[in-house]
Amino acid sequence: MTPEEQIALLEKQLKQAQQDADAWKTKCEQQKQEAASQIAMEKARAEARIEQIETKAQRRLDRANDRAKKKDDAMKKLRKETEHVRAMAEIAPHILAVLIESCAVIQEIAPNDPFLQSDIIRELSNKEQADWEVTLNDKMIKALFIKGSEKTTAAQRKQEYDEMLNTATPMVRTVERCLNQAGRVVTNFVQGAALAAEDAPDDLLLQQAKKVAEIASPETEKAVKRTSVGRQRVKPRELPPAPVVEAVTVCSKCGNHALQRGKPIAMKLRTMETLINRLVRQVYKEYVVVRCEDCGRVHLEWKHPDVPVRPTGTLGQSVVITAAVANAIGLPLHKTQEMLFDKDSQFGHSTLGRNVHEWCEDYGAPLLDKIAQELNSQEVVVADETRISVLQSKHQGVCAPKKDSKTRQHDYIGVQCSVYGHPKRCVKFGYLGSRGKDAIHDFLKDLQCKVLVTDAYAVYDSFCQAHTDIKHQCCFTHLRREIMNAVNFGKLKEKYGNLTDDQLIETAREKADQETLLYSFCSVISAINKIYGYEKTVKPKPNESREDFLERRRKMRAGNPKQLVDIIDKTMEILATQLTQKKGNKLYEAVNKTVQTGAAVVYYMNHREAFRHFIDDPEIPMDSNSVEYCIRSVAVLRKATDHKQSQEYTKSLCTLLSLTETAKANGIRDITGWLLDFGRAYFLYRARASLQTKIDAGGKLDTKLRSFAATSADGFDFEHWLPWNYKKATPQA
Predict the structure, then answer these.
(1) What is the largest CA-CA distance in the chain?
(2) Predicted TM-score of the model (pTM)
(3) How far apart (Å, rounded) are the C-alpha atoms in residues 428 and 727?
(4) What is the rounded CA–CA span in Å between residue 430 and residue 416?
(5) For the ranges 98-102, 453-457, 710-714, which has the lowest average pLDDT?
(6) In 10 A of CB 409, how many CB atoms?
(7) Which of 137-151, 306-320, 480-494, 530-544 is the least confident region?
(8) Among candidates 473, 469, 485, 437, which has minimal Cα distance to 625?
(9) N or C: which end of the chain has fewer CB within 10 A?
């Protein structure tokens, strides 16, 4: 091999050795990187494991702290209850005195009752005071007082009241200040726009604002601020006299004295006495059936002042109606049951609710039908609807949904009512289900009115279009709300609220050509406020007939309010050319649907004529505030209970709301007393008629009444029990 070949071979071997070295170096780097990556992964796993262990340990520590805190709270509560029980033990003699007195009253109410005159009552009256102080143990005192407000002392209650008052007072003042500032901004802007209109005679919007400013604001009497007399001592309530049950000696049908008398029949009945608060006891309901031997007329002597809902019921109507009225004003039924019945009373969770539902079906519904007949015949009716949650419609809760029913997240209740000042004011609630056209039309189908006052919901428009003899008056309060949302008074107050009146007027005058739209909406709001001001100037006078009052209102509306309505209409018409476009022959839609100003103009223009009917008819109100006031009870109940279980019980709730709101509208303060009087009269009428049917069919006088006959309610006179008639006949109501 030549030297050149040897050199070439060596170079080739050297080159191969370098390549092998580079390959080995690369492999080492890869192994190094893999090792580093594996180390990092193991480190991350270790850190995660450590963090998991620390989290688990912290949770255990938190649970241990929670258990310790609960034990500490339980010990504190136990100490407070023990101290309270000791304090209540000091007033045990007073409790005993009330119990003895109540037993004496019960003896006077039912002197012939064998149960009440037993050895237990006599022992209670004759037992020595010292023995009963031992008998009144901790358990009884807890059952009477531990859950009530008696746990707090008078000083603590006063401190809590002062704290709430101190918190609420600044909030009330802030709201009043914002309202005053908003009204001041609107008034001064209208005046500034009126001044700017003098320099721009061709600006139609500013000219309309000038017309609003030229109409003087009505002079209304300022409300006199009354000085609070503070908390007064409440006089003890006297027990109502027990009804005197006179023995039947003469037949009311034929006047015969020959009567056949049956034996006294007694059945258990739970009732609530008014002497001791939240005391429920079990008595005997006793009655005697008397039959005239000449004409066969059946008479009924009911011995106890309370009656059941149904003949075989075990709850008295005093309990049921008290719970029903409380439910209608916002107190849930289960809360009422907790207050009336303790855990040892062996009452089912649905007992009270079922009895209330049965009372609404048997008593409330017939009375509501008579009220609805009067409402349907009135010339002007105000209507609206509100939301309520029903679990059955959501396919939730304990009640199975109806077959082929669709799931609804929200149900609705419809409301109809009379106008303010009507001598026979009526309120009717009805379960709608959905808020669709068919449901609302079905709710309004029986109306025979000439005018329907509502908001501008399209369903009411379609109802009035289908019934051409009914006019549709839209609510100005809803219109003002739409415009105020478009103006955004929050930003307006922040921007101009600190300026003086002169500065506001000058600002409006200088920026009239830039913010004409804002000033136009302010002029509309000012015009609506002036119309409301003129409405307040005409109030019923003492001993003034309704015809004279309506005539004064008609003359007032024909003046400045009519001009203000014309100005509002003209202003909205001009704004419609800028912010809306025609959607058909009569309807409008906003050019820019994302801007609230266009929506406010569309709201008015699509119901243009419906805002003018009240000018020509003094009977028509300019808003639906009367029905909004009735809806407050639903809002209160919605906050308290959040939902109803079934649709059937929701219908019963509508019956209760209708009766309570109708009673309020007619000035009946003792709603429970009215319903109790009606319930007793209706029960006794149906019971006598049912017994008459049974005895005529060959039954005995001593046969117990198990149920009402199908025709037992025929001939009952509801007229006396309608709220307006009951109010006249019972002034103390």
Answers:
(1) 164
(2) 0.68
(3) 19
(4) 9
(5) 98-102
(6) 8
(7) 137-151
(8) 473
(9) N
Q: Which of 381, 373, 429 is nearest to 632 (CA)?
A: 429
Taking the C-alpha atoms of residue 122 and residue 503, their distance in angstroms, rounded to an integer, is 84
Q: Tokens 């709001």 correspond to what residue?
A: 525
pLDDT at position 611 is: 92
Give the Å distances, CA to CA, from 654 to 269, 383, 628, 661: 28, 15, 15, 10
Q: Rounded CA gap, 136 and 161, in Å?
A: 33
User: Residue 253: what residue type?
Assistant: K
Q: Of 228 and 461, which is predicted with more confidence?
A: 461
Q: What's the CA gap between 521 and 539, in Å, rounded?
A: 29
Burial class for 573, CB neighbours closer than 10 Å (0-12, 13-18, 19+)? middle
Mean pLDDT of 44-65: 84
pLDDT 10s digits, 712-721: 889 899 999 9
CA 66 – CA 55 distance, rounded (Å): 16
User: What mean pLDDT do residues 512-526 have?
Assistant: 78
Element (H, E) at 83: helix 3-89
Structure tokens at 322: 């008290």
Please, how many CA atoms are within 13 Å of residue 248, restricted to the half-sphere of its CB?
A: 24
Rg (CA), the chain: 39
> With 50 as the cut, is the pLDDT of residue 150 above it?
no
Judge whether 665 and 427 are in contact, CB under 8 Å.
yes
Helix runs in 580-646, H state only = 596-605, 613-616, 625-641
Three-class DSSP labels, 171-211:
HHHHHHHHHHHHHHHHHHHHHHHHHHHHHCCCCHHHHHHHH
**What pLDDT does 555 receive?**
92
Stronger pLDDT, 701 or 156, i.e. the higher one = 701
Q: What is the 3-state secondary structure (H, E, C) of 482-541?
A: HHHHHHCHHHHHHHHCCCCHHHHHHHHHHCCCCCHHHHHHHHHHHHHHHHHHHHHHCCCC
Neighbours of 204 (CB within 10 A): 18
As given in the structure block, the two tokens for residue 342 are 């303790």
DSSP 390: B
Name the residue among 320, 329, 382 with its Cα closest to residue 354: 320
Residue 544 pLDDT class (50, 70, 90 cuts): confident
Token pair for 585: 């022959």
Alpha carbon distance 284, 113 (integer Å): 8
Give pLDDT tens digits for 385-429. 988 888 877 777 777 777 777 788 888 899 999 998 888 999 999
pLDDT digit string (tens) for 206-223? 778 778 877 877 776 655
pLDDT score of 128: 46
pLDDT at 277: 37
Burial 261-279 (b: 16+ CB within 10 A, else e): ebeebbeebbbbbeebeee
Check if the beta carbon of residue 605 is closer than 8 Å to that of residue 568: no
What's the rounded Cα separation, in Å, for the pair 673 and 679? Answer: 10
Question: What are the backbone angles phi and psi of residue 287, rounded to the nearest 5°?
Answer: -145, 160
